[in-house]
Amino acid sequence: METLHFTTEINATTTKVWQVLWDDVTYRKWASAFCEGSYAMSNWNKGDGVHFLDSTGNGIYSIIDEKIENTLMSFKHIGNIHNFKEMPLDEETKLWCNSKETYHLYTENNQTKLTVTIDALENYVGFFNESMPKALEIIKKLSEI
Question: Can you give the pLDDT at residue 84?
Fold first, then answer.
């Protein structure tokens, strides 16, 4: 497992960036950088489950490990979803079960700095290195409107 780090500076408040990150309409826009039709289902509270899904009902399920409004959202990924159903852990899933994905926002020089860290298996490092910068660019554009 490798921990990847991505950062962008955004000319908007942390409140605005937070809204762009977790509002359903804008989440779907920036998550499309990973897979067209991606969306998430959650109440977005600490300890809540999250289903990260594609348009066919496949994806992963996670738990919100930490949440500090307008500052920090951290997910602990658990397992796969197929046809909208959480699947039991198998040998492949156990390789990345409990991996983390964290979004940290803070103000620096009158801008919001957004830092994302992702624990990724070696065969997904290239995917995230390509898609996360695209997602951050969409988040930046949506936040600066």
Answer: 96
